[in-house]
């Protein structure tokens, strides 16, 4: 019983940091940064944190002795993560932090679909109801007339939804690697982060985007966003080590609520948080929770 409070604490801390992170990302973009620059800075900060942690708590050279399948699996999850980062940051730019967080939190829906199509898992009545609630919530968000004050189109919801889909794929692959190989959690996160950063750099090279360093005014909020994201992942894994996946996923899934509240307080000149957004976000969180606990 003594460990139960720790489960709630770490899961809620993950939600808090993940909820606040996109608000800082939006702040950096408003100050002249781009989605790609933000993604690179945030992922680079996370990579440095994980690499430093591995150097202090373990042995960096252990990465060289990982099995080829472990490297392949976590490189693949990192590549999917790069897609999620880019799509999510573009969503923050286009529709706003609060609405993007709501769309991104549909990732349990995509994970369920992936499990249904590729693992043959049955879909329960509760899961089906959760999906319906998510769809209703997204509809309310889309018609809320809130979000980025510059205006946005419903079609731009494709960015947070694409981020959710890519994140779901990354999680499925990551889970496969953690259960089928002998890699440690810290080693897995480090390889995953390095692969994500490499994929983003490859994308920048292909896109011939040479403006990879954001303006000084945008760099600070991007760095803080990266630190919050790194801590969020750390707290998430600490929570998973102490409690069930269902409880941790449900509590950490409250991040859109945090993003909505923080946006309403911090981004008053940039975003409009309406009653419709608050209602839609709540429905999405409830739907995702139903799927998680099914």
From TrEMBL:
<feature type="transmembrane region" description="Helical">
    <location>
        <begin position="273"/>
        <end position="293"/>
    </location>
</feature>
<keyword id="KW-0812">Transmembrane</keyword>
<dbReference type="InterPro" id="IPR037185">
    <property type="entry name" value="EmrE-like"/>
</dbReference>
<feature type="transmembrane region" description="Helical">
    <location>
        <begin position="69"/>
        <end position="89"/>
    </location>
</feature>
<feature type="domain" description="EamA">
    <location>
        <begin position="160"/>
        <end position="292"/>
    </location>
</feature>
<feature type="transmembrane region" description="Helical">
    <location>
        <begin position="154"/>
        <end position="173"/>
    </location>
</feature>
<feature type="transmembrane region" description="Helical">
    <location>
        <begin position="35"/>
        <end position="57"/>
    </location>
</feature>
<dbReference type="Pfam" id="PF00892">
    <property type="entry name" value="EamA"/>
</dbReference>
<keyword id="KW-0472">Membrane</keyword>
<feature type="transmembrane region" description="Helical">
    <location>
        <begin position="218"/>
        <end position="237"/>
    </location>
</feature>
<keyword id="KW-1133">Transmembrane helix</keyword>
<dbReference type="InterPro" id="IPR000620">
    <property type="entry name" value="EamA_dom"/>
</dbReference>
<feature type="transmembrane region" description="Helical">
    <location>
        <begin position="185"/>
        <end position="206"/>
    </location>
</feature>
<feature type="domain" description="EamA">
    <location>
        <begin position="8"/>
        <end position="142"/>
    </location>
</feature>
<feature type="transmembrane region" description="Helical">
    <location>
        <begin position="243"/>
        <end position="266"/>
    </location>
</feature>
<protein>
    <submittedName>
        <fullName>EamA family transporter</fullName>
    </submittedName>
</protein>
<feature type="transmembrane region" description="Helical">
    <location>
        <begin position="109"/>
        <end position="142"/>
    </location>
</feature>
